[in-house]
Amino acid sequence: MPSASDRRLIDPPRVEAALAGLGDRETVQEWAGRFSVLADPSRLTLLVCIHYAREICVSDLAVAAGMSDTAVSQALRLLRAHGLVTAHRSGRVVYYRLADETMHELIHHVRPHTTAE
């Protein structure tokens, strides 16, 4: 494949803007990994449920998502590994919440709040 310097550019400022917007390619790879995790309907269901509950334990999340506790635990392990959720312990119960504001914003695009919510 020819290098960028060997190629004829139609609109160099647009190419520069595209490259500036792309930024660090490692970050793009990281987000591609996150999106691949989000592509699973069960995991996305869990994230939406967590978002609306604010924080929730595995057994309650399993009921809300219509999944088994084991399936929820396995999915949460993957979601934590990809930095999509965090957990904290209160006594013997572990509660999960979305990891950051970016996840909240993404969920709003998947399932936007209505004015009644």
TrEMBL record:
Keywords: DNA-binding, Transcription, Transcription regulation. GO terms for molecular function: DNA binding; DNA-binding transcription factor activity. Transmembrane segments: none annotated. Pfam families: HTH_5 (PF01022). SMART domains: HTH_ARSR (SM00418). CDD domains: HTH_ARSR. InterPro entries: ArsR-like_HTH (IPR011991), HTH_ArsR_DNA-bd_dom (IPR001845), HTH_MetalResp_TranReg (IPR051081), WH-like_DNA-bd_sf (IPR036388), WH_DNA-bd_sf (IPR036390). Residues 23-117 form the HTH arsR-type domain. This is Transcriptional regulator.
